Task: inverse folding
């Protein structure tokens, strides 16, 4: 019987070339300066500006911006290649780093023409910066418990409440604010999204939170903040939908980033295991070390298949909610384990800031909490499993 032509696990040639180009760029331009750039929780802007200039030669500026807005309009599979390769270095922060054009929230593409002129176009031009405000003290993984309230009064809304763990609020020009507009409906049509300039009266940046990772998010309060109706994103009650769409593709990005972290950990661990000699033999000869490397390699292979498959489905217009949950869960957990094993193989030097391992370790531990904790995503997946397989 002749072999049946079926599944193709090969990347298209143009994506292979893009991957190889990015890998050379990361090796030559980013990894050599990463400790200089990340000496404190704030990234040094001068080396980043230099990297941004050099990155223009890659021809990938605006890779994640739709064609109709002047970008390349790459599909999700192509984006995963970019995200994973850049994540091999800690030269860029794990949150918010951008050298291939301004970081744009997908929610902004849902703005109407007038809003795009006011907010999206200046953001694409690099004139405005934004932040996303959803998390609250009592509503992190469960947005249906949101208390920040937006009440319509004629031609405007009045927002009261507070948000917490808001990254980049202090450096932003405006926020995408998710607020409750109908307490009865909650997440089922009772949550709306708004554009709110940071300098709007009543919006106060209270304090920055000290975290173990290189991020200093803000606590923000809203005290009778007036927002014009024309600054609402979409229809009233569509806010949860917009936020979840962003988080869905964001979870694929988590998986892709985890791929890059695992690749770097394998590179560091395998190289060090060959060099480091203890009791007369290199670590690479020790079975305990070999098993760690084999497990890291196997986990990376599994994750790569998961991420590429999910992105392929998305580019075909298919629903990937469950795949996104799995990519984020598996990727963040296994990349943290890979960083932990890499640190163990290196011993004491692995905990030092001389190497990037401790940064990868801290970042990947934090990723298991942000944008959907592991336990919550597993709970959601379990509902699907019970529906599909429970009879």
Result:
């Amino acid at each position: 019987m002749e072999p049946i032509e079926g599944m193709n696990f090969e990347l298209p040639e143009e994506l292979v070339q893009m991957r190889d180009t990015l890998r050379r760029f990361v090796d030559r331009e980013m990894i050599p300066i990463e400790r200089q750039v990340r000496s404190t929780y704030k990234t040094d802007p001068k080396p980043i500006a230099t990297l941004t200039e050099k990155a223009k030669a890659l021809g990938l500026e605006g890779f994640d911006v739709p064609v109709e807005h002047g970008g390349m309009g790459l599909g999700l599979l192509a984006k995963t290649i970019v995200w994973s390769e850049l994540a091999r270095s800690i030269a860029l922060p794990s949150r918010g780093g951008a050298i291939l054009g301004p970081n744009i929230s997908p929610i902004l593409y849902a703005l109407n023409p007038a809003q795009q002129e006011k907010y999206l176009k200046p953001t694409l031009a690099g004139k405005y910066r934004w932040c996303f405000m959803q998390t609250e003290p009592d509503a992190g993984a469960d947005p249906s418990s949101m208390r920040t309230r937006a009440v319509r009064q004629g031609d405007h809304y009045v927002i009261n409440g507070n948000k917490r763990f808001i990254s980049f609020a202090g450096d932003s020009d405006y926020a995408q604010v998710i607020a409750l507009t109908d307490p009865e409906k909650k997440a089922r049509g009772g949550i709306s999204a708004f554009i709110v300039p940071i300098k709007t009266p009543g919006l106060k940046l209270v304090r920055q939170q000290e975290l173990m990772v290189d991020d200093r998010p803000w606590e923000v309060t809203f005290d009778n903040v007036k927002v014009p109706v024309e600054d609402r994103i979409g229809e009233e009650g569509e806010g949860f939908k917009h936020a979840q769409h962003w988080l869905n593709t964001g979870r694929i990005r988590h998986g892709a980033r985890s791929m890059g972290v695992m690749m770097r950990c394998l590179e560091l661990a395998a190289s060090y295991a060959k060099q480091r000699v203890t009791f007369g033999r290199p670590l690479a000869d020790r079975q305990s070390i070999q098993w760690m490397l084999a497990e890291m390699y196997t986990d990376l292979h599994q994750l790569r298949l998961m991420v590429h498959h999910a992105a392929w489905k998305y580019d075909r217009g298919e629903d990937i909610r469950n795949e996104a949950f799995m990519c984020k869960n598996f990727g963040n957990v296994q990349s943290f384990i890979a960083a932990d094993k890499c640190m163990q193989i290196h011993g004491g030097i692995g905990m030092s800031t001389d190497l990037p391992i401790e940064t990868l370790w801290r970042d990947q531990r934090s990723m298991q909490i942000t944008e959907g904790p592991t336990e919550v995503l597993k709970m959601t997946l379990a509902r699907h499993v019970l529906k599909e397989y429970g009879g």
